[in-house]
Amino acid sequence: MLDARQLTKTYASVPAVENVTFSLAPGQILGCLGPNGSGKSTTVKMLTGLLEPTRGNVLFAGEDIRKDLVGYRKCLGYVPEEPNLYPYLSGYEYLEMVGLLRGMPAARIRKRVDSLLELFSLYSSRHGAISSYSKGMRQRILLIAALMDDPKVLIFDEPLSGLDVTSALILKNLIKSLGQQGRAVFYCSHVLEVVEQVCSHLLILRRGEVIAYDTTSAIQNDIGRSSLESRFMHLVEAGDTEKTARDILSAMGEA
Amino acid sequence: MTSPLGFLRSRWKEHSQRPFLRLVGLFIGRAFHGSGDVDGEELDFSMGLVLSLLALPGAFYSILLFDKYGSLLQWMHGNRHFDVLTAALPDEYFLIVLSMVVTGVVAVWRWDSIFPDRRDYANLVPLPISTRTIFLANLTAIFFVAGLLALDVNLASAFLFPFVATASQETVLFFIRFSGVHTLVVVLSSLFSFFAVFTVVGVLMTALPYRLFRRISLYLRALMIAYLVAMLSTSFAVPAMLEHLPQTPVRFLPSVWFLGLCQWLRGRAGLSLADLGKLSILSTGCLILIAIVVYAVSYGRCFKRIPENIDTIPESNRTGAAWMFGLLDRVVLRSGFQRAGYRFVLRTLLRSERHSLVLGGFTGLGIVLASQVLFAAFNGKDVGIGTPSAEILSIPFILSYCIIVGLRFAFGIPTELRANWIFRLLLDKTMPECIPLARKALLTFVVPWVLAVVFPLHVYLWGWVDGTLHAIVVSLWAALLADILLVRFRKIPFTCSYPPFRDSAIVVVVSYVIGFFVYVVLTSQLEYWMLLKQVRILLVVPLAVGIWYGLSRLRGALIDVDKELIFEEKTSLGFEVLDLRT
Fold it and tell me: Cα B56 from chain centroid?
């Protein structure tokens, strides 16, 4: 359904992402992992069409997304990493605006938004200004905005950020169900346990390059380490985290 | 060995580092800059710019009085015994009202920044500073801001008005006395206005539950602004009513008390006016004392309880808004983009402080100019409103010009730039609907009041034909102005980074001034000439069609890339490298 081919993005001749290639089939949930600065967000932005690749392309149903960006985005639901919303709009007004921009009829917007607000426990505060929402509430507004037009492809960038335990559990189950329904899901996160539980496939990036791309079980078996955390640390060549913690403590004690 | 100046400088530096003065500085800065949420690319109003803008109305008004007080003109008019103090009474009253209105509007606009808020609580209370110190620092900042405002708003007129008014007098002493009394009166009236707003807010904050106060806050602001605007726009009628003191109800207007003070200090007040003058001093003193007490109480009640209160913005009136948007969706807004964009534009204009300020500022300027025209039309002239005159005809043009230009200016100021990702994600860059959207939003702020106020009022005053023709010409001209201002517009309002204004500031300001004279002065003169013989009004049709044709040719000449939707405004470089490789 979605194919990234040799995706490369350079900023002032410094590559942020280089030759990233993967496929996302219907029903697949592809987890994207990597330390800070590994190129996850740049990859996501290229997948959504917000950023144009320096080289390479993204194909949707075999066609370059640039040929019909609007058509592609009608099939796309996207939850960005930061909940950047207009604070003076109410949750309902924001979702209504998104629905109208997506070309949904007013009656369908009302029905869909009301039911999703109810399910995400936001119905009672739907007319309050977004500025008064907690981070978790804003995150849920973004999730509703991504889901409201029944998208075929979903791209989540840290979707659990700020969510309470119940909402996070609901979302994890929802993502699995979306995959079972045949939707393609690209899931970026720092939380290894969630990726391990939810994703069928894994893409691990380091310094803008793909260092592992396979099914989750295959990656677990290949490296032969006890937990995904230790496998991840091994792959991205992270330093000794315990030593860094000790160094911070000693720096705090210095005059 | 350090010089006395160096010693003083080092002492001041040492002193200014103390927590109390740092806090005072913080609160003063916040009163002018707001909560500091401005993004790097967004527009921030520096203190210098704000202070300059506030001084402008008084300066403009004083300069326009040259022809009234010029000794040569008086001599040419055959006015050999020109009494400055009598002639200056209406202008003195207008300047008192102007200073009260400008200061009052600023106090209403900034009242959220006057009181310490949730952010101050979160940042200051955890620090080792007592809440008493925070209270005293904020109170000091309030007094400093009030004094600064009172001086600034009247700074230009305190010099220019006496200079213009006393130009025909021979003694410097007369100028000094005239100027001293005028300055004292307008500064006191500004202080009165500021502390009146402050006291009303403080009393309501103290008396009402926090959520109720937040809910009515917007309506209360609107009510205060309406009162101030009404005071300004009726200022032309008040001086004539002073002859009937003490029976006339104008004795209840605080602005009249200050006029009484002015006349009393000049030895020109009758008994009633002198009493009102004394009342102005007494009321200002009392108001300042009440303001301090109310502030102390509201501080104790509200600031210390901030963590207990939920910060909410009043919920929108869903039914009313839904009905209005439903109607517009059926009649005016053709596509999903226009419907979404229109709602976004209206809500941003009404709820974003920065944008409502810009729109309010331009509208306020329009009201001041319109009041001035009305004031000049009636002041000393035998003008009847039963027949059209160029002055009366120009008032809707002044207001529509200021509103449309203000809106166009506000459209370029971004709001929450990082949140524009949703438009970037969902919209087609080649979509050509930005201009229709912006045009409809601009005309929303003009056509309704033209139809609801200008049309019936002029039909009542001048009859069906003249009233209808005037409303049509105003609406048509507003639509043309909107199209001219949007000729190269290719963004969704408020979603594009702000262009470096300083590069073209002078050109923009000069264009706006020239545009004002063409749109207001020439058009109202032309319309007056046309209404003298109504058949001449047909000339408007070829004129409007010609302008429209020119605009559409201009738009058609743009290449495709210049029509694409943009989210970033690029700086125009002094030179650029052309890549001419084929």
Answer: 11
